[in-house]
Each structure stands twice: as C-alpha cells, then as structure tokens.
Amino acid sequence: MVEMLWLNGALVPAGEAAISVADRGFTLGDGLFETLRLQGGAAQDVPAHFARLAEGAALLRLPVPFDAAGMAEILARTAAANGLAEGGLRLTLTRGAAPRGLLPPAAPEATVLATAFAASPVAGVRAIIARSIARDETSPLSRVKTLNYLPNILARLEARDAGAEEAILLNHAGRVAGATIGNILVRSGALWLTPPVSDGALPGIRRAKLLAAGLVRQAPISPEMLQNATAICVCNVLAVRPVIALEGTTLPAMALGEV
Questions:
Q1: Is the pLDDT reported for residue 257 higher than 90?
Q2: Domain boundaries, the chain
Q3: pTM across the whole model
Q4: Which residues of 25-56 are buried (b: 16+ CB within 10 A; e: fewer)?
C-alpha cells in the first residue's frame, strides 16, 4: 500500500510530497509537532493535543490554520488513507517558507504535515543518566514540543555509546527532568512520582491523565532518588515502557495503571 500523508490541505502519496527548501521548519527548526495515539481508528485526546499545540504556537507567535475539529479531521483522513486503525499519528506545523534571516515574515503561510504509522512492540529499555547535556528548565521552550530535539538526540547518542536505549536528562539544578522520548515515572516506596513542569518536565498528555487519575504524584526527583527507585518507567502517548536497568543496575518491570 502506498503511504499517504496530509500536506497543506490535501492527501498525497509520500513519494510525491514536496516541501520548500526555504521552509523555516527545515532551515531553522521553526515549528511544532504533536504525536498522537491512534486507537480504534481514531486519534486519541485531540483536544488536549490541540491545546498544547496552540500554547506552543502562541509562544512562538506562529499562526495555527485549523482549530481542534480541523486537527481531528486532518488526522482522521490521514489514518483512513493509510488503512490504519492502531498505531500513531504525527502532525507537524512550521512557519513555512521564508527568505533568509531570523525574523519571520509578517504574514507567514504555515506548512501543515500529518503522517500515520503502525504500532511498535513495547519493550523494556536500559537507561543511563545523561551527562553530556542538561534540560533547561528555565526556558519556556521546555514546555512545548518544538522541532529542535538536539538535546534529546545528544543524550540518546550518549546512551547508545553506553550500550543503552534511553537517557534520563537532568536539569541545570541537577534534578531529574525527563527522558528523551517522554516523561519519567519513578517508584519511590508505595508512590509513583514524576517531576514537575517547573523542573523541566514536558507537560505530557499521558502524564496529565496519570496525575488526574491519582496514579502518579508530582515531586522533585534527585539523581539519588532515581538510583534508589524500586521501578522506573518512561511514558508518552504511545506507550509506558519499563526501565529494566539504570546504568547497569537491574530494575523490575513493574506495571503501572493504563490510561
């Protein structure tokens, strides 16, 4: 089956899609993205994802050319065009093509891209604590999903070099902020804890649902707490993955309630 994607108002075969080489998402990372879970043929939690996208767009002064209902329609058509009922969807929004320079044009024409992908098996991961880079909890960009993932990439490269699959990032104050692909959940005693947004944690969609369900509490997490944890998980909208080893120390793959 030919992969289909949504690009600027139309479904097109992936092999025929074209984005300008002057697109600021490509040249400057000037844009945002959201990854959503696809379940039963429907994108999950679209209003929450749209709200986070809109918050990020307001921060970047980036126009959003659709509302929550329009976002749901784009995603539904993309999933259907690819014959997918389970898996994930990604929506990318950039400021579009523009001349050279940092300042954006006064009236940008946004690029909107949506893709669908099949579900991947959920497996435990070995993790390290990243030491090559820290997450900047003081930056407003830590609270939105921009196209610049270089800190996460550097941390993941460090993990790979150490024979691990995931890296846990600390913030500039030395506290735990999150993982390269999601939020961190730490089992301490009888409680599951997750870092607060003020410590650099991304306000994840699944994280918010776990907090609302009372399955997780917010609390600052030190590296010592992390290393003494009885269990650790990495969560995003696609999965909750157990950390089965932290810097060589084996951990139990303890389950967490599904939301």
A1: no
A2: 4-118, 125-250
A3: 0.94
A4: bbebebbbbbbbbbeeeebbbbebbbebbbeb
